[in-house]
Amino acid sequence: MKNTISERVADFLKKFPPFNILAEHQLEKLSYEVTIIHKENNSLVFSEKEPPHNYFYVVHKGAVALTKKGSQQMLDICDEGDIFGLRPLLAHENYKLQATAREETILYAIPIQEFKPIALENQQVGDFLIESFASNTRNPYSLKHRGKLYGVPNEAEGNPETKMLDLQPVRYSTNLVTCSKETQIKSLAASMTQRNVGCVLVTQDGLPIGIITNKDLRNKVATGLVSITENAEAIMSSPVITYSKDLTITQAQMALMKSQISHLCLTEDGTTDTPAIGILSKHDVMVALGNNPAVLMRAIKRATDSQRLRTIRHSILNLLQGYLEQNIPMGLVCKIISELNDATIKQVIQICIDQMETPPPVKFTWLAMGSQGRGEQLLTTDQDNAILYEDVPTEQKEETQAYFLQLGKQISTELNLVGFEYCPAEMMASNPLWCHSLEEWKEVTSHWMNNPGPDEILLSSIFFDFNVNYGEKALADELSLHIFENAKKYPQFLTHLASGALQNPSPSGFFRDFLVEQDGEHKDFFDLKLRALMPIIDAARVLILSHSIKSINNTAERYEKLAELEPKNKELYLAASYASKALLKFRTRQGLQHNDSGRYIALDQLNKEEKIKLKRTFKTIKEIQELLQIRFQVKNLLR
Amino acid sequence: MMGFFSKKKHLELPEFWETYANYFKDKLPETISENTFVVLDTETTGFNMTKDRMLCIGALKLRDNTIVVKESFEVYIEQEHYDAESAEIHGILKKSKKERVSELEALQQFLAYAKNHVLVGHHVLFDVGMVNAALKRNGLPQLLNKTLDTGLLYKRTLLISTVLRKKENYSLDELAEKFRISKKDRHTALGDTLITAIAFLAIVEKLKPKNLKDLFKKQNPPKFGL
């Protein structure tokens, strides 16, 4: 029995174990019995202690978090192709964990009744299941063992190890660089440089007999002990310490510590009698533990596809949560996370360019706009981006734009895959309105500044926070220069921009109560972005533009600069700088807590202290707005 | 006297139609999660309602965010009218090995499947129009089901602004790209319904309608107020 949908389900399942070992007729039959379930973000799949469903689940799209009640610790994230909720069905016990959709998710629910006979019939499937349970790849209890292996984990450190990586198999490099023992040192060093690796394996008849690392080159060759014209044999460490490829992260870490080496050689069966299949470096282990920005940064730069970047993003969010729990200063947190986001985007762009059939026809710049341009994008919010490319002769215009639109579209899709949502207003480089040559951008921005209607003001306020993400900085500088000159020519533009900044509704009402949304999907929620963050961000932009300062995009830093430029308003500006950081932190906390953008806040869930903190920033917002009103004589405009 | 009776006899509809029509005596449930949506797509020989014919009807049932794979509906129809160009797009050749039924049989099966549920489709009025044309050819009245169009609903998920030009129409391909749905089975009726269904779920999550009535309302462009 099959139909078009069940065929599609089968196509997906057969890519992942244990379904890849099923016979075709078994898979066909199983796929026909599948139920496809759509889960909204944050919705529950099953809860702890709930009796088992008749199904187990495979993630088709999205991600599911497994957590233990009462602890915020995430035990595991199941990604595309991962199975969960099977063990309780086989063991006839209630669920021991809670499963929640971490984003919009599509699950395939597979009836245990249909699956069990197949598992019994097919030896390999049974083995896979036993193995995966035994190695605890998806097992809740490994968290317990952590302390025993490492001593008591330090609670104050927050919870960087939210995934139980220590019992997961390691991800090792299969990019093996080998040489024979007769290879000249000079040429093996050259190939290490070319392949960008830190060690080379010396093999004989395909079997590993020695290893040479950077350290060997430094200690034995650079010191002059051994000449570069000698052979590999002279400096290699031998015999090679080998391990089996099924090594877990914990085991790998122990091995590296025990033998004080930086690289492990992995072979088929763990002995030197079988061919080497991979090299595991200390760095690979660090990436797996993943709670260190420098390590994450290197991992990003080494990523070759969006799937990998997506996993790294999860680690970045964990890192962020850890920072917030440790109360690390917001300015610093912003910098680190923005750098990581920035590197992620750069890497995505690089991957996409490499995938294009031809290199870009002219130089271009990828501009990040909005919160990302300001370096304030802590949680993944929408993508706002644009492409700016060099001017080309008229006859090449169409072709050039077509190229960059295609590139923009590709990048935007990949960014979405990594976890950056599409902009609902389509302010993205894939949109012809946001993909222009320098000359065209000059025209567009001039048009906005000369005809400052509400829409133009809105567009300018999003666009003018642009920041170079990738490519030629000179192009962006020229555009900035053009904008500042234009701002001087049309002083009324700043007045309009100031008026735009004052248009957002104020955060508190007459009785100094919070104003909540009256209508729509977020009725009775407080809109933190619109009512508190936007006014303070918009005001900073107008003020900094009026001083013709470019290259400072971050709101808090803008206020600090303003404090320096206008000593008489120093106190107010510093308060505003503080308020902007406090609000951003507030939003990020809320976002992490509810796994969303943190924009809307349910007031009844705030405690007294949080409410007071929020209200304190409102006073500053009000004062800044008054300053704008007077300085730019906004009252003269029809509002 | 006889004349009166024969006229009545002429109006008498087959039993399967009566069964179908009877379902509409029941009111639809109010909430989205209680409703069953029948996501529908037809493959046709072309876009002409009178000249062209349906090659295939595909449908699936969506209830409370869930699709049961084996409860989907797929029926291929015997062809008289045949257009080589269109058959190429859909890959349904007139003499392919799929088992096919007469148009009347297909309609009968579809009515029994759809009951009084809301029909969902991408540009659903085209598919409904094709089914209606077939019903008419077979001496039957029009479909009674309410409809929801993912094309119209999708537009409501985008921001409204005068400067950001919105397209008039969004194709199913564009939706599939937007929601990252595999386009593998594009142009098989049932494959398209799965894409439509997943897009529909994503759209409903974005729009967060209060109930079914509200969702119908959201197909219309929003009214502006000051």
TrEMBL record, chain A:
<feature type="domain" description="CBS">
    <location>
        <begin position="236"/>
        <end position="295"/>
    </location>
</feature>
<dbReference type="InterPro" id="IPR000644">
    <property type="entry name" value="CBS_dom"/>
</dbReference>
<dbReference type="InterPro" id="IPR005105">
    <property type="entry name" value="GlnD_Uridyltrans_N"/>
</dbReference>
<dbReference type="InterPro" id="IPR014710">
    <property type="entry name" value="RmlC-like_jellyroll"/>
</dbReference>
<keyword id="KW-0129">CBS domain</keyword>
<dbReference type="InterPro" id="IPR018821">
    <property type="entry name" value="DUF294_put_nucleoTrafse_sb-bd"/>
</dbReference>
<dbReference type="Pfam" id="PF00027">
    <property type="entry name" value="cNMP_binding"/>
</dbReference>
<feature type="domain" description="CBS">
    <location>
        <begin position="172"/>
        <end position="227"/>
    </location>
</feature>
<protein>
    <submittedName>
        <fullName>Cyclic nucleotide-binding domain-containing protein</fullName>
    </submittedName>
</protein>
<dbReference type="GO" id="GO:0008773">
    <property type="term" value="F:[protein-PII] uridylyltransferase activity"/>
</dbReference>
<dbReference type="Pfam" id="PF00571">
    <property type="entry name" value="CBS"/>
</dbReference>
<feature type="domain" description="Cyclic nucleotide-binding">
    <location>
        <begin position="54"/>
        <end position="136"/>
    </location>
</feature>
<dbReference type="Pfam" id="PF03445">
    <property type="entry name" value="DUF294"/>
</dbReference>
<dbReference type="InterPro" id="IPR051257">
    <property type="entry name" value="Diverse_CBS-Domain"/>
</dbReference>
<dbReference type="InterPro" id="IPR043519">
    <property type="entry name" value="NT_sf"/>
</dbReference>
<dbReference type="InterPro" id="IPR000595">
    <property type="entry name" value="cNMP-bd_dom"/>
</dbReference>
<dbReference type="InterPro" id="IPR046342">
    <property type="entry name" value="CBS_dom_sf"/>
</dbReference>
<dbReference type="InterPro" id="IPR018490">
    <property type="entry name" value="cNMP-bd_dom_sf"/>
</dbReference>
<dbReference type="Pfam" id="PF10335">
    <property type="entry name" value="DUF294_C"/>
</dbReference>
